[in-house]
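Milestone M4 deliverable, item 7.
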Amino acid sequence: MAWKGVNYDFSSWMGKTFWGIENSTLATNETIFSVITRLSNSMASLPLKLYKNYDSVSNAASDVLINEPNQNMHGFEFIRNLETSRNETGDGYAIIERDIRNQVSKLTNINANHVEPVIERNSYDLWYEVLGDDGNRYYFHNMNMLHVKHIGSTGSIKSINPIKALSNATDFDKAVREFSLKEMQSAPNSFIIKYQANIDTEKRQRVIDDFKRFYKDNGGILFQEPGVEIDELERKYEAADTLATERITRSRVANVYNIPVTMLNDTEGQSYSSNEQLMRMFVQLTLIPIVRQYEQEFNRKLLTPAERKAGFYFKFNEKALLRADTATQGDYYAKAIRNGWLSQDEVRRKEDEAPMGGNASKLWVSGDLYPIDMDPKDRKSTSSNNER
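Output delivered:
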């Protein structure tokens, strides 16, 4: 089958080929890879919606952000790439493209190493200088660039690279690993050969040659002859030393990325009464500041001032990570319904079930269970009232 026509021969097509060997710290250090994977997947997995005064709504910006940021990826991949860049380089960037009506039409991740924030001299507005693949430099106003980041030094717009902050830890960990690998790959045993003092140089050399030959030809079996003593010099590889070093590295990585070290499979000395308690700590100490930064960035740059004043806002649902076991969750819903602060339909929505409408959409109070807006006079009489 042949394609014919203008541009069908790809003569004017220009593309980018991704090739080569990935040898960055992220690709060669499994501890850092693990923590960045956990953070980026957690952020990308959180349900994200656009709300207007607590009601879920949709507009052009939310459709682009949640469903199709650009022609090459979906919303999950977009946020995961943004968060990965933030944790690998300190900054995550995405260009905001708008249509002729100034509505958001595309969001494109860009390499953080090609971006440099600059302050315009007269207006003091923040701009971003981007080095393109064609070698040219392009400038984007801060309202047309999503920028999520780690903390930076005082007066700096760019963030501190967390991997560079871990350089001492990663160098030490690499040195220990290389040493341990050499120890494991080296000859398992060494020997001390003792021979009589009256052996001349020629005989001494023959003893050494015979030793080498016997060891090689007999798989390590040696024959001790009269006048020659062979003692094994034992060499021990202590795996505990490597394990201790790995624990130190995990602790340092967890500190830099502000996550519980248990998230890196280090449970020694850690005690949690339930998985819910661990996830609550992870959400409160780690994710809440990250989530808040994303929400502020999306609200400021993807919504117009008029939309914000009208009550529009983006929100991640971090409670999705705090789901308890079935018994605890059922007890939570029962209390919420009986005490009148959740309706059955709201519970159904939380469990991804279709709302029923009618009385299921109303709030109830126990008495036992009346619509919360019902006049108390219309409730059933007590037994004492009936006797009267």
